[in-house]
Structure of Isopenicillin N epimerase:
Amino acid sequence: MSYRTHWQLDPQIDFLNHGSFGATPRVVTAAQRAFQDELEWDPIEFLAPERSLNSKLDHVRQIVSDLVGADPSDLAFVRNATEGVNAVLRSLPLDAGDEIMVTNHGYNACTNAADYVAKRSGATVRVAHIPFPLSGVDAVMDAVERELHGRTRLLLIDHVTSPTGVVFPIAPVIELAHQRGVRVLVDGAHGPGMVPLNLNTLDADYYTANHHKWLCGPKVSGLLWVAPQWHEEIRPTVISHAANRPQSDRSRFLAEFDWTGTFDPSPLLALPTAIDFLSSLFPAGMRGLMNANHAAAIAARNVLAETLEIDPPVPDAMLGSLVTVPLPAASSRSRDQWASLQQRLREHHRFELPVFPGFVAGTWFLRISLQAYNDIQQVERLAEVLRAELAS
Ligand SMILES: Cc1ncc(COP(=O)(O)O)c(C=O)c1O
């Protein structure tokens, strides 16, 4: 069955890049618009936290908490994962000589935030180099363990990596880091809606994620889960009223994140519609959608691997619904060819997907994302185009 009509995506383009900003179903944007209309009908009644906003946010918080296995008192809202990562890093006590650890699969914006706070306090950022192609979980554990040091204060690690689409084994990574007394911030930008989550049992110190990616919520909204022992310490990136005006119905932690200045809450308020919609697509609900997207990603990866004559770069069990393949770099001619491929795919072949430099100079990666509105025929058409590129 084609789910494509539920999204307003341009039918002229094969959109294989859900991973970057997500795409929002029509029913969800309609719900968002209805909230915006309601807001403009009676702005103070709608937006003043103590009138009706706080209880509306708490309703959404309960729904999101149920989805990600969290206690609502640990779950704050942020605009996006970048903001969540910044809030944690900027709240972290760091001394000169301390270290923050990141990985080479990390998201550039978040690594930049780590660099910024480290430099500010004379700390340093250490990078764990995890290979790609990747043989399995052990390669991740070994790379992380090798770089954990006595001065490591925090490990920032992705749940699902942006450049390589790998689902990292975050539970054992967290256990390892905790054995060394190191806190863990999981950048789960792609987590909710792509992989099952239980934040209560995961035992991270912090987990931040986007609602606008794999939950198909309106742009923009995200979550920041914080373990209870860090509630006192963490502050949002923007300080507002709650810093000196406690609210009787919520902790300072929630009150500060719930109001960082006037904002448009409609993306958050429409999120339950997105969760309901996605959960309605398959008999097994959200889990059914995740499984279907994962199966589609494996099928797509197989088509691309066969076309490019490469081995699958990541074990199936370490994939979600984001797939990266390295492009063959046999000759300098193919290097030039790959550098302009993304633009050619868009302009000549009506595909939207990222092609970008790999970890080793001169190599290139191609990434596709599979959401309910995609189908394998789109990937087969892409394979045909790539075959022609290889032959030219
Ligand atoms: C792993 C990862 N972290 C963080 C982000 C940043 O997301 P946002 O720009 O919504 O904050 C992304 C976006 O693609 C991502 O893939």
About this structure: The chain has two domains: 4-16+284-391, 29-275.
